[in-house]
Amino acid sequence: MSGALVFYSAVDNGPEWQAALAAAAPGLDVRIADPADGTVEGDPADVRYALVWKPPHGFFARFPNLKLVVNLGAGVDALVARDDLPDVAITRLSDPHMARMMASFVLFCVLRHAREIPTFEKAQRERRWHYVHPRTAGEIRVGVLGLGELGAAAAQELARQGFDVRGWSRTAKSLDGVQSCHGMDALAGFLADTEILVVMLPLTPETRGLLDAAHLALLPRGAKFINVARGAVVDEAALITALASGHIAEATLDVFATEPLPSESPLWGMDNVLVTPHLASVAIPASAAAQIADNIRRVEEGREVLNRVDPARGY
Ligand code: NDP
């Protein structure tokens, strides 16, 4: 493979990505940009591809021959919101291991609520033997908002475990074991019929603040709430109110409107909330590199790239 790829991330391991890309795309010259200011050694004109997570403003303009931007992650909200995006193909990572990691985390969250684990943790702290007869998975209605690459994998894993899984997306979807509906008109009925809600929607202009007080009120009293997608899809103040009143009985939250979650957030102190620090799933260089290499080949051969992001749509 010819040409150079520039890597920028202040949080990911550059040398690990460099090694994975060297194996998947022999001959590709991978240059790691300085995480402090985005500067890169070598002639910028050689750079045809960029693998990036939140590069500094103006980063892309340094590379006159850029043809492809790969977002180092599945969520592209930070990338497509920029006002300095180059007019080239933009793709996101698509990695079966990332999907598996997300599906297993969502399964853990759903099981935690379905099997009443927070109730037993509380009882244990009070040295109390508190038996709650378990319900079977098939009796428990789990609603997954968003049936994309990761959302569909999570929904299907839950269905495999026997949960009564329903899914909601923008366009019609057909997934084995998942009863699905789509479009804004279907959302109210979907929420009203969900006991455990799993948020797997990308953050876009349409989904920002979608789960506001009115939508949260549609969930049945005592519903459980899981967000592993993006914090700003939910009105966090409305969620806190619903959790305080018991309308939403419990939540497992991996993502927040502001990250790291500020120390003054009431969520930290709520005993019906589990806070995890945005780690439901991560990009895995060894498996994601193959997909990046494939897209680079596609660009070189003038073919359409896979997993293309539509900046106007926001995902
Ligand atoms: P995709 O982009 O593959 O899919 C998005 C899904 O949401 C699609 O089913 C899409 O519908 C649906 N959707 C988008 N907009 C709307 C809307 N307005 N109304 C109804 N449905 C809508 O996303 P993934 O499944 O790969 O990932 C989901 C999100 O998870 C990512 O965007 C990212 O923010 C987050 N994430 C979180 C991680 C973590 O560690 N916590 C790690 C990785 C990702 P349709 O199918 O019709 O297009």
How would you portray this structure in words?
It is built from nine helices and twelve strands. With 315 residues, the chain is an alpha/beta fold. It folds into two domains: 110 residues, NAD(P)-binding Rossmann-like Domain (Rossmann fold, 3-Layer(aba) Sandwich), CATH 3.40.50; 179 residues, 3-Layer(aba) Sandwich (Rossmann fold), CATH 3.40.50.720. A seven-stranded parallel β-sheet has the order 8-7-6-9-10-11-12, sandwiched between helices. A five-stranded parallel β-sheet has the order 2-1-3-4-5, with helices on one face. α1 packs across α9 and α3 packs across α5. It starts with a strand and ends in a 15-residue tail after the last helix. The model has no long low-confidence stretch (mean pLDDT 97). The protein binds NADPH dihydro-nicotinamide-adenine-dinucleotide phosphate (NDP).
Question: What order do the helices and strands come in, and which of them pair?
Answer:
Blueprint (H helix, E strand, L loop, with lengths): L3 E6 L4 H11 L4 E4 L14 E7 L14 E4 L5 H4 L8 E4 L3 H19 L2 H9 L15 E5 L3 H12 L3 E6 L8 E5 L1 H9 L3 E4 L13 H6 L4 E5 L8 H10 L2 E6 L19 E3 L9 H16 L15
Parallel strand pairs: 1-2, 1-3, 3-4, 4-5, 6-7, 6-9, 7-8, 9-10, 10-11, 11-12
The structure holds NADPH dihydro-nicotinamide-adenine-dinucleotide phosphate (NDP).
